[in-house]
Amino acid sequence: MNTNALSYLFDDSSLSPKLVLIARKVLNEERISKDEGLLLYEEGEPGFLGALANHVRERKNGKVTYFNRNFHVEPTNICVFSCNFCSYSRLLKQKEEGWELTAEQILDKVKSYDGQPVTEVHIVGGVHPKMDLYYFADILKQIKSHRPELHIKGFTAVELHYMFRKAKLSMEEGMKIMHEAGLDSLPGGGAEIFDEEIRNIICNDKCTSEEWLEIHRIAHSLGMHSNATMLYGHIENYSHRIDHMDRLRTMQDGTGGFNTFIPLKFRNGDNAMSDVPEVSVVEDLKNYAVSRIFLDNFNHIKAYWPMIGRSTAQLSMAFGVDDLDGTIDDTTKIYSMAGAEEQNPSLTTSQLVELIKQGGRTPVERDTLYNVVTDYSESVLEN
Ligand code: V47
Ligand code: SF4
Q1: How far is the CA of 213 from the CAs of 84, 157, 161, 286, 349, in angstroms?
Q2: pTM for the complete prediction?
Q3: Residues near ligand 2 with C-beta < 6 Å?
Q4: What is the CA(341)–ligand 1 centre distance, in A?
Q5: What is residue 36's predicted lDDT score, i.e. its pLDDT?
Q6: Tens-place pLDDT, residues 92-123
Q7: Residues 6+ apart with CB under 8 A from 27
Q8: Which protein residue's CA is at the shortest distance from atom 23 of ligand 1?
Q9: From the centroid of its chain, how far is CA 231?
Q10: Which ligand number lies closest to the CA of residue 125?
Q11: Average pLDDT of the segment spanning 127-154
Q12: Average pLDDT for 204-230
Protein backbone atom coordinates (compact mmCIF):
# COMPACT_ATOMS: atom_id res chain seq x y z
CA MET A 1 0.00 0.00 0.00
CA ASN A 2 1.12 3.50 -0.81
CA THR A 3 0.92 4.82 2.78
CA ASN A 4 3.26 7.75 2.11
CA ALA A 5 1.01 9.03 -0.64
CA LEU A 6 -2.00 8.59 1.63
CA SER A 7 -0.53 10.59 4.49
CA TYR A 8 0.87 13.18 2.07
CA LEU A 9 -2.54 13.69 0.49
CA PHE A 10 -4.82 13.35 3.49
CA ASP A 11 -4.93 13.68 7.20
CA ASP A 12 -6.58 10.28 7.54
CA SER A 13 -7.45 10.85 11.20
CA SER A 14 -10.14 13.27 10.01
CA LEU A 15 -11.57 10.83 7.45
CA SER A 16 -14.13 8.11 8.11
CA PRO A 17 -12.63 4.58 8.00
CA LYS A 18 -14.67 3.83 4.87
CA LEU A 19 -13.23 6.82 3.02
CA VAL A 20 -9.71 5.85 4.13
CA LEU A 21 -10.30 2.39 2.69
CA ILE A 22 -11.46 3.86 -0.64
CA ALA A 23 -8.46 6.22 -0.76
CA ARG A 24 -6.13 3.29 -0.14
CA LYS A 25 -7.73 1.30 -2.94
CA VAL A 26 -7.43 4.20 -5.38
CA LEU A 27 -3.80 4.83 -4.47
CA ASN A 28 -3.12 1.11 -4.98
CA GLU A 29 -4.81 1.22 -8.41
CA GLU A 30 -7.61 -1.10 -7.29
CA ARG A 31 -11.09 -0.69 -8.73
CA ILE A 32 -13.71 0.77 -6.39
CA SER A 33 -17.18 -0.77 -6.15
CA LYS A 34 -20.51 0.87 -6.93
CA ASP A 35 -21.22 1.26 -3.21
CA GLU A 36 -17.86 2.92 -2.72
CA GLY A 37 -18.57 5.27 -5.64
CA LEU A 38 -21.85 6.18 -4.01
CA LEU A 39 -20.12 6.85 -0.70
CA LEU A 40 -17.73 9.24 -2.44
CA TYR A 41 -20.68 11.25 -3.73
CA GLU A 42 -22.47 11.17 -0.38
CA GLU A 43 -19.62 11.71 2.08
CA GLY A 44 -16.57 12.94 0.16
CA GLU A 45 -15.95 16.64 0.64
CA PRO A 46 -14.55 18.54 -2.35
CA GLY A 47 -10.96 18.85 -1.06
CA PHE A 48 -10.69 15.11 -0.47
CA LEU A 49 -12.31 14.19 -3.79
CA GLY A 50 -10.18 16.69 -5.69
CA ALA A 51 -6.92 15.36 -4.21
CA LEU A 52 -7.84 11.76 -4.95
CA ALA A 53 -9.09 12.51 -8.47
CA ASN A 54 -6.00 14.60 -9.19
CA HIS A 55 -3.84 11.68 -8.12
CA VAL A 56 -5.58 9.45 -10.68
CA ARG A 57 -5.45 12.18 -13.32
CA GLU A 58 -1.73 12.69 -12.87
CA ARG A 59 -1.06 8.95 -12.87
CA LYS A 60 -2.79 8.69 -16.24
CA ASN A 61 -1.94 12.00 -17.89
CA GLY A 62 0.67 13.75 -15.77
CA LYS A 63 0.30 17.54 -15.82
CA VAL A 64 -1.00 17.58 -19.38
CA THR A 65 -4.33 19.13 -20.32
CA TYR A 66 -5.38 18.35 -23.85
CA PHE A 67 -7.40 20.37 -26.30
CA ASN A 68 -8.14 19.96 -29.96
CA ARG A 69 -8.91 22.26 -32.84
CA ASN A 70 -12.32 21.36 -34.06
CA PHE A 71 -15.45 22.98 -35.38
CA HIS A 72 -19.08 22.03 -35.19
CA VAL A 73 -21.62 21.55 -37.94
CA GLU A 74 -25.24 21.32 -36.87
CA PRO A 75 -27.23 20.26 -39.95
CA THR A 76 -30.62 20.90 -38.34
CA ASN A 77 -32.44 21.43 -35.06
CA ILE A 78 -35.64 19.84 -36.37
CA CYS A 79 -36.13 16.69 -34.32
CA VAL A 80 -38.68 13.89 -34.23
CA PHE A 81 -38.05 13.44 -30.51
CA SER A 82 -39.13 15.58 -27.59
CA CYS A 83 -36.57 15.30 -24.80
CA ASN A 84 -37.82 17.39 -21.90
CA PHE A 85 -34.40 18.88 -21.13
CA CYS A 86 -33.78 20.04 -24.70
CA SER A 87 -34.00 23.76 -25.46
CA TYR A 88 -32.62 23.39 -28.93
CA SER A 89 -34.90 21.18 -30.97
CA ARG A 90 -38.06 22.08 -32.86
CA LEU A 91 -40.66 19.71 -34.26
CA LEU A 92 -41.23 19.61 -38.03
CA LYS A 93 -44.48 21.53 -37.50
CA GLN A 94 -42.45 24.39 -35.96
CA LYS A 95 -40.16 24.43 -38.98
CA GLU A 96 -40.09 28.21 -39.25
CA GLU A 97 -38.28 28.38 -35.85
CA GLY A 98 -35.68 25.85 -36.93
CA TRP A 99 -32.95 25.45 -39.51
CA GLU A 100 -32.17 22.80 -42.12
CA LEU A 101 -28.83 22.97 -43.91
CA THR A 102 -28.60 21.61 -47.43
CA ALA A 103 -25.73 19.31 -48.37
CA GLU A 104 -24.18 22.26 -50.18
CA GLN A 105 -24.40 24.50 -47.10
CA ILE A 106 -22.79 21.78 -44.96
CA LEU A 107 -19.97 21.44 -47.48
CA ASP A 108 -19.55 25.22 -47.61
CA LYS A 109 -19.22 25.30 -43.85
CA VAL A 110 -16.49 22.65 -44.01
CA LYS A 111 -14.77 24.55 -46.83
CA SER A 112 -14.86 27.75 -44.79
CA TYR A 113 -12.14 26.13 -42.61
CA ASP A 114 -9.84 25.44 -45.57
CA GLY A 115 -6.32 26.53 -44.75
CA GLN A 116 -7.03 26.56 -41.01
CA PRO A 117 -5.22 23.96 -38.88
CA VAL A 118 -8.35 22.15 -37.64
CA THR A 119 -8.11 18.38 -37.19
CA GLU A 120 -11.74 17.45 -36.52
CA VAL A 121 -15.28 18.29 -37.56
CA HIS A 122 -18.01 17.45 -35.06
CA ILE A 123 -21.36 16.91 -36.79
CA VAL A 124 -24.41 16.64 -34.56
CA GLY A 125 -27.96 17.88 -34.61
CA GLY A 126 -31.62 17.06 -34.26
CA VAL A 127 -33.08 13.84 -35.65
CA HIS A 128 -34.68 15.07 -38.85
CA PRO A 129 -37.33 12.75 -40.36
CA LYS A 130 -36.17 13.46 -43.90
CA MET A 131 -32.39 13.60 -43.59
CA ASP A 132 -31.69 9.92 -43.90
CA LEU A 133 -28.69 7.62 -43.82
CA TYR A 134 -27.99 7.94 -47.55
CA TYR A 135 -28.22 11.74 -47.40
CA PHE A 136 -25.58 11.86 -44.66
CA ALA A 137 -23.43 9.07 -46.15
CA ASP A 138 -23.17 11.14 -49.32
CA ILE A 139 -22.18 14.24 -47.33
CA LEU A 140 -19.52 12.24 -45.47
CA LYS A 141 -18.06 11.09 -48.80
CA GLN A 142 -17.97 14.64 -50.09
CA ILE A 143 -16.23 15.93 -46.95
CA LYS A 144 -13.64 13.15 -47.18
CA SER A 145 -12.98 13.77 -50.85
CA HIS A 146 -12.56 17.50 -50.14
CA ARG A 147 -10.33 17.13 -47.06
CA PRO A 148 -9.32 13.49 -46.49
CA GLU A 149 -7.25 14.07 -43.35
CA LEU A 150 -10.06 15.83 -41.45
CA HIS A 151 -11.37 13.46 -38.78
CA ILE A 152 -15.16 13.21 -38.88
CA LYS A 153 -16.70 12.70 -35.44
CA GLY A 154 -20.36 12.64 -36.10
CA PHE A 155 -23.90 11.64 -35.16
CA THR A 156 -24.97 10.52 -31.71
CA ALA A 157 -26.16 6.95 -31.20
CA VAL A 158 -29.68 8.43 -31.11
CA GLU A 159 -29.35 9.89 -34.61
CA LEU A 160 -27.70 6.73 -35.98
CA HIS A 161 -30.24 4.40 -34.41
CA TYR A 162 -33.08 6.34 -36.04
CA MET A 163 -31.34 6.43 -39.45
CA PHE A 164 -30.64 2.68 -39.40
CA ARG A 165 -34.21 1.84 -38.40
CA LYS A 166 -35.67 4.08 -41.12
CA ALA A 167 -33.41 2.52 -43.73
CA LYS A 168 -34.52 -0.92 -42.47
CA LEU A 169 -30.93 -1.91 -41.81
CA SER A 170 -29.45 -3.76 -38.87
CA MET A 171 -27.21 -1.67 -36.64
CA GLU A 172 -24.15 -3.48 -38.05
CA GLU A 173 -25.17 -2.88 -41.66
CA GLY A 174 -25.95 0.77 -41.05
CA MET A 175 -22.73 1.42 -39.14
CA LYS A 176 -20.63 -0.21 -41.86
CA ILE A 177 -22.20 2.05 -44.51
CA MET A 178 -21.48 5.17 -42.45
CA HIS A 179 -17.96 4.04 -41.58
CA GLU A 180 -17.14 3.25 -45.20
CA ALA A 181 -18.56 6.62 -46.25
CA GLY A 182 -16.07 8.38 -43.97
CA LEU A 183 -17.44 8.43 -40.42
CA ASP A 184 -14.36 8.04 -38.20
CA SER A 185 -15.77 8.16 -34.69
CA LEU A 186 -18.90 8.86 -32.66
CA PRO A 187 -19.50 11.70 -30.21
CA GLY A 188 -20.87 10.83 -26.80
CA GLY A 189 -24.28 12.50 -26.91
CA GLY A 190 -27.65 10.89 -26.34
CA ALA A 191 -26.57 8.77 -23.38
CA GLU A 192 -28.32 11.09 -20.87
CA ILE A 193 -28.95 8.79 -17.89
CA PHE A 194 -29.18 5.06 -18.53
CA ASP A 195 -31.52 4.28 -15.63
CA GLU A 196 -34.74 3.35 -17.41
CA GLU A 197 -37.10 5.00 -14.94
CA ILE A 198 -35.36 8.39 -15.17
CA ARG A 199 -34.84 8.04 -18.93
CA ASN A 200 -38.57 7.47 -19.38
CA ILE A 201 -39.32 10.71 -17.59
CA ILE A 202 -36.76 12.95 -19.30
CA CYS A 203 -36.60 11.46 -22.81
CA ASN A 204 -39.05 8.63 -23.28
CA ASP A 205 -39.24 8.44 -27.06
CA LYS A 206 -35.66 8.08 -28.25
CA CYS A 207 -33.39 5.03 -28.31
CA THR A 208 -33.10 3.03 -25.12
CA SER A 209 -30.01 2.77 -22.97
CA GLU A 210 -29.33 -0.73 -24.28
CA GLU A 211 -29.62 0.52 -27.87
CA TRP A 212 -27.24 3.42 -27.14
CA LEU A 213 -24.70 0.99 -25.72
CA GLU A 214 -25.20 -1.45 -28.60
CA ILE A 215 -24.51 1.23 -31.22
CA HIS A 216 -21.24 2.11 -29.48
CA ARG A 217 -20.35 -1.58 -29.07
CA ILE A 218 -20.78 -2.09 -32.82
CA ALA A 219 -18.73 1.01 -33.64
CA HIS A 220 -15.93 -0.28 -31.41
CA SER A 221 -16.09 -3.70 -33.06
CA LEU A 222 -15.42 -1.98 -36.41
CA GLY A 223 -12.35 -0.29 -34.93
CA MET A 224 -14.04 3.08 -34.47
CA HIS A 225 -13.65 5.03 -31.25
CA SER A 226 -16.33 6.99 -29.45
CA ASN A 227 -17.03 9.20 -26.46
CA ALA A 228 -19.56 8.79 -23.67
CA THR A 229 -21.53 11.50 -21.89
CA MET A 230 -23.76 11.68 -18.82
CA LEU A 231 -26.41 14.35 -18.38
CA TYR A 232 -26.43 15.09 -14.64
CA GLY A 233 -27.91 17.54 -12.18
CA HIS A 234 -31.62 17.21 -12.93
CA ILE A 235 -33.96 14.65 -11.38
CA GLU A 236 -31.47 11.81 -11.10
CA ASN A 237 -29.80 10.84 -7.82
CA TYR A 238 -26.27 9.68 -7.08
CA SER A 239 -27.14 5.99 -7.52
CA HIS A 240 -28.36 6.72 -11.03
CA ARG A 241 -25.06 8.41 -11.86
CA ILE A 242 -23.08 5.48 -10.48
CA ASP A 243 -25.28 3.00 -12.36
CA HIS A 244 -24.68 5.00 -15.56
CA MET A 245 -20.92 5.00 -15.12
CA ASP A 246 -20.91 1.35 -14.12
CA ARG A 247 -22.60 0.36 -17.41
CA LEU A 248 -19.93 2.35 -19.28
CA ARG A 249 -17.09 0.89 -17.23
CA THR A 250 -18.33 -2.63 -17.93
CA MET A 251 -18.54 -1.99 -21.64
CA GLN A 252 -15.12 -0.36 -21.71
CA ASP A 253 -13.67 -3.50 -20.08
CA GLY A 254 -14.96 -5.43 -23.08
CA THR A 255 -14.20 -3.08 -25.99
CA GLY A 256 -11.71 -0.44 -24.84
CA GLY A 257 -13.22 1.80 -27.51
CA PHE A 258 -14.19 4.86 -25.47
CA ASN A 259 -11.79 7.79 -25.75
CA THR A 260 -13.21 10.06 -23.12
CA PHE A 261 -16.02 10.60 -20.64
CA ILE A 262 -17.84 13.93 -20.72
CA PRO A 263 -20.16 14.85 -17.85
CA LEU A 264 -22.78 17.32 -19.15
CA LYS A 265 -24.41 19.62 -16.61
CA PHE A 266 -28.16 20.05 -17.08
CA ARG A 267 -28.99 23.66 -18.00
CA ASN A 268 -32.54 24.74 -17.38
CA GLY A 269 -33.04 27.65 -19.80
CA ASP A 270 -36.17 27.57 -21.91
CA ASN A 271 -37.06 23.88 -21.84
CA ALA A 272 -39.76 21.63 -20.39
CA MET A 273 -37.68 21.12 -17.24
CA SER A 274 -37.03 24.79 -16.50
CA ASP A 275 -38.54 24.37 -13.03
CA VAL A 276 -35.69 22.01 -12.07
CA PRO A 277 -32.92 24.08 -10.44
CA GLU A 278 -29.37 23.76 -11.72
CA VAL A 279 -26.74 22.28 -9.43
CA SER A 280 -23.86 24.33 -7.96
CA VAL A 281 -20.29 24.61 -9.22
CA VAL A 282 -19.16 22.59 -6.17
CA GLU A 283 -21.46 19.80 -7.33
CA ASP A 284 -19.95 20.02 -10.83
CA LEU A 285 -16.44 19.69 -9.42
CA LYS A 286 -17.42 16.78 -7.16
CA ASN A 287 -18.98 15.07 -10.15
CA TYR A 288 -15.83 15.43 -12.25
CA ALA A 289 -13.80 14.03 -9.37
CA VAL A 290 -16.02 11.01 -8.70
CA SER A 291 -16.15 10.14 -12.39
CA ARG A 292 -12.34 10.38 -12.61
CA ILE A 293 -11.99 8.03 -9.64
CA PHE A 294 -14.75 5.59 -10.65
CA LEU A 295 -13.97 5.23 -14.37
CA ASP A 296 -10.59 3.62 -13.91
CA ASN A 297 -10.52 2.29 -17.48
CA PHE A 298 -11.21 5.63 -19.19
CA ASN A 299 -8.02 7.49 -20.06
CA HIS A 300 -9.61 10.92 -20.26
CA ILE A 301 -12.27 13.09 -18.59
CA LYS A 302 -13.38 16.08 -20.59
CA ALA A 303 -14.91 19.36 -19.43
CA TYR A 304 -16.86 20.97 -22.20
CA TRP A 305 -16.03 24.63 -21.61
CA PRO A 306 -18.74 26.18 -23.83
CA MET A 307 -21.27 24.65 -21.46
CA ILE A 308 -19.81 25.19 -18.00
CA GLY A 309 -17.88 28.36 -18.79
CA ARG A 310 -14.16 28.92 -18.86
CA SER A 311 -13.72 29.58 -15.10
CA THR A 312 -15.27 26.29 -14.01
CA ALA A 313 -13.41 24.53 -16.82
CA GLN A 314 -10.17 25.95 -15.45
CA LEU A 315 -11.00 24.76 -11.92
CA SER A 316 -12.07 21.34 -13.17
CA MET A 317 -8.45 20.56 -14.05
CA ALA A 318 -7.80 20.20 -10.29
CA PHE A 319 -10.72 17.72 -10.02
CA GLY A 320 -9.70 15.04 -12.51
CA VAL A 321 -10.27 16.73 -15.87
CA ASP A 322 -7.42 16.43 -18.37
CA ASP A 323 -9.19 17.62 -21.52
CA LEU A 324 -10.92 20.86 -22.43
CA ASP A 325 -12.88 20.68 -25.65
CA GLY A 326 -11.93 22.51 -28.82
CA THR A 327 -10.77 25.90 -29.86
CA ILE A 328 -11.87 28.00 -32.82
CA ASP A 329 -15.40 29.31 -32.74
CA ASP A 330 -17.46 26.62 -31.15
CA THR A 331 -20.64 27.12 -33.05
CA THR A 332 -22.81 24.68 -31.16
CA LYS A 333 -26.16 26.13 -30.17
CA ILE A 334 -27.23 23.22 -27.98
CA TYR A 335 -26.02 24.94 -24.80
CA SER A 336 -26.35 28.60 -25.62
CA MET A 337 -30.04 27.94 -26.22
CA ALA A 338 -30.27 26.23 -22.80
CA GLY A 339 -28.72 29.20 -20.97
CA ALA A 340 -25.03 28.23 -20.74
CA GLU A 341 -22.48 30.85 -19.61
CA GLU A 342 -20.87 30.99 -23.04
CA GLN A 343 -23.39 32.51 -25.43
CA ASN A 344 -20.91 32.84 -28.28
CA PRO A 345 -18.26 30.36 -27.31
CA SER A 346 -14.99 31.25 -28.91
CA LEU A 347 -11.42 30.97 -27.66
CA THR A 348 -8.28 31.42 -29.68
CA THR A 349 -5.51 28.87 -29.24
CA SER A 350 -3.42 31.33 -27.25
CA GLN A 351 -6.33 32.09 -24.91
CA LEU A 352 -6.92 28.40 -24.28
CA VAL A 353 -3.19 27.75 -23.81
CA GLU A 354 -3.02 30.62 -21.30
CA LEU A 355 -6.13 29.38 -19.47
CA ILE A 356 -4.56 25.92 -19.11
CA LYS A 357 -1.21 27.31 -17.99
CA GLN A 358 -2.87 29.51 -15.35
CA GLY A 359 -4.39 26.31 -13.98
CA GLY A 360 -0.88 24.90 -13.52
CA ARG A 361 -1.09 22.42 -16.40
CA THR A 362 0.79 21.73 -19.60
CA PRO A 363 -1.27 22.55 -22.70
CA VAL A 364 -1.06 19.96 -25.46
CA GLU A 365 -3.02 20.04 -28.68
CA ARG A 366 -4.24 16.56 -29.58
CA ASP A 367 -6.07 14.99 -32.46
CA THR A 368 -9.32 13.07 -31.92
CA LEU A 369 -7.44 9.92 -30.91
CA TYR A 370 -5.19 11.78 -28.46
CA ASN A 371 -2.09 11.73 -30.63
CA VAL A 372 -0.02 14.81 -29.78
CA VAL A 373 -0.22 17.54 -32.43
CA THR A 374 1.66 20.32 -30.58
CA ASP A 375 3.08 20.57 -27.10
CA TYR A 376 2.67 24.16 -25.91
CA SER A 377 4.60 23.87 -22.65
CA GLU A 378 7.42 26.19 -23.72
CA SER A 379 5.65 28.35 -26.28
CA VAL A 380 4.70 32.01 -26.12
CA LEU A 381 1.87 32.74 -28.52
CA GLU A 382 0.89 36.02 -30.08
CA ASN A 383 -2.79 35.27 -30.60
O1 V47 B 1 -27.14 14.32 -25.70
C2 V47 B 1 -29.10 18.76 -24.46
C3 V47 B 1 -27.01 17.42 -23.99
C4 V47 B 1 -25.89 16.41 -25.68
C5 V47 B 1 -29.14 20.02 -22.70
O6 V47 B 1 -18.48 13.69 -27.80
C7 V47 B 1 -27.99 19.24 -22.65
O8 V47 B 1 -16.94 15.22 -27.89
C9 V47 B 1 -27.40 20.19 -20.67
O10 V47 B 1 -23.08 15.09 -26.49
N11 V47 B 1 -28.49 20.96 -20.63
C12 V47 B 1 -25.28 16.62 -27.06
N13 V47 B 1 -27.12 19.32 -21.65
C14 V47 B 1 -23.88 17.24 -27.00
C15 V47 B 1 -22.80 16.22 -26.77
C16 V47 B 1 -21.36 16.58 -26.86
C17 V47 B 1 -20.95 17.88 -26.65
C18 V47 B 1 -19.59 18.16 -26.76
C19 V47 B 1 -18.67 17.21 -27.09
C20 V47 B 1 -19.11 15.91 -27.31
C21 V47 B 1 -18.13 14.87 -27.69
C22 V47 B 1 -20.46 15.59 -27.18
O23 V47 B 1 -26.20 17.66 -25.10
C24 V47 B 1 -27.21 15.70 -25.60
C25 V47 B 1 -27.67 16.07 -24.20
O26 V47 B 1 -27.13 15.20 -23.25
N27 V47 B 1 -28.01 18.46 -23.75
N28 V47 B 1 -29.81 19.73 -23.83
C29 V47 B 1 -29.38 20.91 -21.61
N30 V47 B 1 -30.50 21.66 -21.54
FE1 SF4 C 1 -33.78 15.77 -30.32
FE2 SF4 C 1 -31.36 15.46 -29.24
FE3 SF4 C 1 -32.96 17.49 -28.43
FE4 SF4 C 1 -33.55 14.97 -27.78
S5 SF4 C 1 -31.70 16.11 -27.12
S6 SF4 C 1 -35.01 16.51 -28.60
S7 SF4 C 1 -32.88 13.83 -29.57
S8 SF4 C 1 -32.07 17.23 -30.46
Answers
A1: 21, 8, 11, 25, 34
A2: 0.95
A3: 79, 81-83, 86, 88-89, 126-127, 158, 203, 206
A4: 15
A5: 98
A6: 777 788 899 999 999 999 999 999 999 999 99
A7: 1, 2, 5, 6, 9, 55
A8: 189
A9: 10
A10: 2
A11: 97
A12: 98
